[in-house]
C-alpha cells in the first residue's frame, strides 16, 4: 500500500479541521433550512454582527479548537493520554486494510515502531 501514516494524518487534519471550519463558516453566514435550530440562529446572528477582522478571529478560534480536538483524539489513540481507567494496559490500534494490504496507522502500545506519534503528524513541518 502506498498510503502512509503521514498522509493519513494530513488527510484527517484536512477533513476534520480545514474543511470543517470552512463548512461551518458557510453555515454561520447562511444557516440551512427555513427555521434553523435556535442555537445556530443565535450564532449566525452574532457572527453576522462582527466586522471582517472579528470574523477572521472567530475562524481562527474555530480552527484552533478543531485542531485541539483532533490532537486530543489522536493522542488518545497513540496512548499519550488515557481515555478511561478501564483501558489502562489495553492496546488501541487503528489499522487500514485494503485487499491484502494492511497499514498500522496508530497503536497505543508504547513499543510500536513509529518515528512519530500520529498526533505529532497532524502538524506538518516545513521542508
What does it look like?
The chain is mostly helical and 127 residues long. It is built from 4 helices and 2 strands. The protein has a two-stranded antiparallel ribbon. Helix 1 (5-29) packs antiparallel against helix 3 (52-78). The longest helix has 27 residues, at 52-78. The chain is elongated and about 50 Å long.
Describe this structure in a few short sentences.
With 127 residues, the protein is mainly α. It contains 4 helices and 2 strands, in the order αααββα. α1 runs antiparallel to α3 (52-78).
The side-by-side strand order for the widest beta sheet comes to 1-2
**Which parts are unreliable, with pLDDT below 50 for 5 consecutive residues or more?**
none
Class by SSE composition: mainly alpha
Write down the overall mean pLDDT: 89
* Helical proportion, percent range: 40-55%
Distance between the termini: 24 Å
Radius of gyration based on Cα positions: 19 Å
Order of helices and strands: HHHEEH
Shape: elongated
Q: If helices are DSSP runs of H or I spanning 4 or more residues, what is the number of helices?
A: 4
The major sheet is characterized as: 2 strands, antiparallel
DSSP strand content: 5-15%
List the helices and strands and how they pair.
Blueprint: H1 5-29, H2 38-49, H3 52-78, E1 93-98, E2 101-107, H4 118-121
Antiparallel strand pairs: 1-2
Write a concise keyword list for the protein shown above.
single chain; elongated; 4 helices; mainly alpha; 2 strands
